[in-house]
Amino acid sequence: MITKVFTVKPSNTIKELLEIFTSNRIGGVPVVDEKDHLVGIVSDGDVLRYLAPKPLGFAGLVYIIEDGEMEDVIQEKLDTQVKEIMTKRNLLSVSPDEEFEKTIQLLSRHHYKKLPVVNGAGRVIGVLSRGDIINNLAKKMILS
Question: By percentage, how much of the chain surpasses pLDDT 70?
Answer without folding.
Answer: 86
